[in-house]
Amino acid sequence: MMLVKANRVRTKGASAMTGKETERKDTGGGPILQASGITRIFGRGNTAVTALENIDLNIPPGTIVALRGRSGSGKTTLLNILSALDDPTEGQVYFKGREITGLSGSERSQIRRKEIGLVFQSYGLIPLMSAYENVEFGLRIAGLKGNREVVEHALDRVGMRERMKHRPSELSGGEQQRVAIARAIVHQPELLIADEPTAELDSRMGLQVVRIFRELVKESGMTVVLTTHDPGMMELVDHVIALEDGNIVSQTTNESPLI
Ligand SMILES: Nc1ncnc2c1ncn2[C@@H]1O[C@H](COP(=O)(O)OP(=O)(O)OP(=O)(O)O)[C@@H](O)[C@H]1O
What we know:
Layout: E1 9-12, E2 33-42, E3 49-59, E4 64-68, H1 75-82, E5 90-95, E6 98-99, H2 105-115, E7 116-119, H3 131-141, H4 148-157, H5 173-185, E8 191-194, H6 203-220, E9 223-228, E10 239-244, E11 247-254
Parallel strand pairs: 4-9, 4-10, 7-8, 8-9
Antiparallel strand pairs: 1-11, 2-3, 2-5, 5-6, 10-11
Helix pairs in contact: 3-4, 3-5, 4-5, 5-6
This protein binds adenosine-5'-triphosphate.
Adenosine-5'-triphosphate binds near residues 73 and 74.
């Protein structure tokens, strides 16, 4: 499976998503995430690596956006900056109209815990906890009280309520990833950020995970930003941002995603 059919996509050089034309910093119809002039340099002097170079992008709310590119192209670095895990060397990131770059570590951590959900390639579940306890832990990290109904609802949304007493080692990779998604959405964040969420899964399980993302977008208006190596993902998401050597080389909008 390679590129999407030409009549279903619009490829833009400088699109609304990269456009510097979008100056608005509020969220009333504006982007949920906006990045402006993001450069990230690791190290100094002879050993310095420019992982991202002058990236501009706007992510519209209620969409699934995939960052795509080869290994080393800068996907994870960009995702870490968009989710306030890392600070850029230069540039600004606005989340819901508020600049998050330059905030203190504890302010950034508050935003991440309360307003963003994070999903990782390797699931990141706590082995000794059941699926239920892992999801409840997500609620506590967000500073909210454990609430049975809320936890079970999150597990229900990913189809894992029946297996909630099982520990991660008793679940398949796809099931573990679904629990990890339940943990990431239990505090009902507006933004879900997922680093290679389907990389460890076979194509059927991967599709199931993207289907869950689509349902979250439809039901709660959530925005999902993910990274992927998978060309097949282009058929499924709303926008694809392709990175090469720390630069955005193309942006594609899929007018009618398959799911
Ligand atoms: N902490 C770091 N120190 C030095 N260089 C780094 C660091 N993190 C990333 N890099 C470099 O920045 C570049 C981009 O890395 P990044 O992890 O963002 O790529 P990626 O597209 O996510 O790759 P992959 O698909 O393999 O995860 C690479 O050249 C990498 O070696």
